[in-house]
Amino acid sequence: MADPVKKKMLKEEILTYAYLILYIALSSGQIFFNKWVLSSKEINFPYPLGLTLLHMLFSSVLCFLLTKGFKIRTHAIQLMPILFSHWKISNERQLLQFDVSEDAGKWRTKIYTTSVVPIGAMFAMTLWLGNTAYLYISVAFAQMLKAIMPVAVFILGVAAGLEIMSCRMLLIMSVISFGVLVASYGEINISWIGVVYQMGGVVGEALRLIFMEILVKRKGLKLNPISLMYYVSPCSALCLFIPWLFLEKPKMDAHGMWNLQPVVLMLNSLCTFALNLSVFLVISHTSALTIRVAGVVKDWVVVLVSALLFADTKLTVINILGYGIAIAGVAAYNNHKLKREASRNISDNSQDAPTIPMTTSSNPNR
């Protein structure tokens, strides 16, 4: 009996490592692919807004096909907690009857406009500005600037009342900020325009995470990455289409950029969607700590490999030292967040009153 159990455990362990390697490879590869498409003389597609719009449209279509054509479950938004407060008592049988036809449509619209739309808009902003930064700064330097993300999330969280300022968190934020400053000081070819774009993308991602906390978790919504992309991608595409229509479409018309390499762009979009699938697989088979550690490994892979792939990436000792300090701060931040989430989960499980989640999720670590 022991041998089959050991074989099963070994198989699961190998599968987990395979998913982690797939996630790191796809995540790093997607960053390199985007940089190559945007800045390569062979592709000649310096339109980050159009590229991001293409990603969102491709993701929207594939999510629709997977959920409708192949019947893959998306954990659709349900309304039971809200409808419990909107029941009607029948005078004839004294039974509780939900006025679903009257309330469901109204509350679905409200949830979409107050939850999905802000998240989709910030997601679009993050991808747009982040991809634009690649036109001005190296991949490695962009990755180093992204290390400031916990600082932005913490500051906005304190402003929104989600985080509490403490000496420990202040020290962690100071370490991360100092590391990013040192890494920036060591950058040889720095472009402040690129820095502004990258920091704008960081702020957008921080706002998206804050909206996820305020508008999703507090309302009881639990969506896995596929469900999230199913709802968010169309909204993000719409948010990107409007500025693309005025900012990049005229340039594409003037330069005759419609005769492009469709195979390359489609492969680039497919890699983006495959990356989202790999995230789904990783968080389904690992813990929150594992996905964070994998993210740190991926960041180092991007920084080091980009120095070999791109001519505009020139790493210095100060770069590496500063980034190492920032990553140490990020690791401390992740450890602090994980401990707090664990204590919160224990506290929630000890409550006597049962809660009814608006959706069921197979990925609680998300």
TrEMBL record:
Principal location listed in the UniProt entry: membrane
Highest taxon, organism lineage: Eukaryota
Record-given protein name: Sugar phosphate transporter domain-containing protein
Intracellular or extracellular location(s): Membrane
Pfam families attached to this UniProt entry: TPT
Keyword field contains Membrane: yes
Biased composition (Polar residues): 344-366
UniProt membrane topology term: Multi-pass membrane protein
Sequence segments annotated as region (Disordered): 343-366
Sugar phosphate transporter domain ranges (all copies): 19-334
InterPro entries membership: EmrE-like, Sugar_P_trans_dom, TPT_transporter
UniProt entry keywords in alphabetical sequence: Membrane, Transmembrane, Transmembrane helix
Record field: transmembrane: 14-33, 45-66, 111-129, 135-162, 169-186, 192-216, 228-247, 259-282, 289-311, 317-334
